[in-house]
UniProtKB/TrEMBL annotation:
It comes from the Bacteria. This is Glycerophosphodiester phosphodiesterase family protein. It holds the Pfam family GDPD. Residues 12-255 form the GP-PDE domain. InterPro entries: GP_PDE_dom, PLC-like_Pdiesterase_TIM-brl.
């Protein structure tokens, strides 16, 4: 039986990668993982938002991908040394800072795919999402972060565990077991989805064997980050269940056309 996270929204699933930041436009740039980026994704008809979280110096779980703002505005201070109110001021002209709590409250119809970027943020993330575990999928490159967030959500009173996507070790096990035609069942215990690139360097990760093995165990396959509509359609035709894209507008048009 699938997790409630997957009940209702259209298939194949479109995950708006850090929201939607439209190319071009006038005025202050809208940044990824902001209120305006999420609103733009919602307006396209995307039903899932992929995002990332870190802790501020105040212990708030904010939606920021990098460990600093250097890529966005040149500020090299670590996010975990900055006060939440300072980040709010910085983000004010760029779409608005979002905490996980804010995002869940502001977009009650959306499902969130949240990457715990650090060990420190995992347990606080779990506590924040406890009341919304039915519409949150927790992931991390580190499987330990994912497990810590799930444990914290359950300890905080979540009626069900949040959905989860396997980390780096889970993906390696899935790819390795299937390559030698062994079942990856043990590696996919309490895993609801695997979210993988089509290739990692010269190695093809998304293969018919991987897709079939995951599906036999009731695990969905989502591919990131795909921005070309032809590639989206090709991957869905090959059997993948979801596409993570910077261009949710193109993905919805390509995959959910009337």
């Amino acid at each position: 039986m699938s997790h409630p996270y997957f009940d209702g929204p259209r298939q194949p699933r479109v995950f708006a990668h850090r929201g939607l930041v439209a190319p071009g436009g006038d005025g202050p740039a809208v940044w990824e993982n902001t209120a305006l980026a999420f609103a733009a994704a919602h307006a396209t008809g995307a039903e899932y938002i992929e995002t990332d979280c870190r802790l501020t110096a105040d212990g708030d779980v904010v939606l920021v991908h990098d460990d600093t703002l250097a890529r966005l505005n040149g500020d090299t201070r670590p996010i975990d040394t900055m006060r939440t109110v300072e980040l709010e001021r910085i983000f004010a002209d760029h779409g608005g800072l979002m905490t996980v709590k804010d995002a869940l409250a502001s977009f009650p119809s959306m499902r969130f795919n949240i990457d715990a970027k650090t060990t420190a943020v995992a347990a606080p993330l779990g506590r924040v999402i406890a009341d919304d575990a039915h519409r949150v999928l927790v992931t991390s490159f580190a499987d330990a972060n994912r497990k810590a967030a799930v444990a914290a959500a359950l300890a905080a009173g979540a009626e069900i565990r949040p959905a989860t996507s396997g980390g780096r070790n889970t993906i390696l096990a899935l790819r390795g077991f299937t390559a030698v035609r062994l079942s990856p069942a043990r590696a996919l215990t309490e895993i609801d989805a695997v979210q993988i690139p089509e290739r990692q360097g010269p190695v093809k990760i998304v293969t018919p064997t991987v897709i079939d093995a995951a599906h036999r165990l009731g695990v969905e396959v989502h591919v990131w980050t795909v921005n070309d509509p032809d590639d989206m359609v090709r991957l869905v035709d090959a059997g993948v269940d979801g596409i993570v894209s910077d261009r949710a507008d193109l993905a919805v048009a390509a995959l959910h056309a009337p």
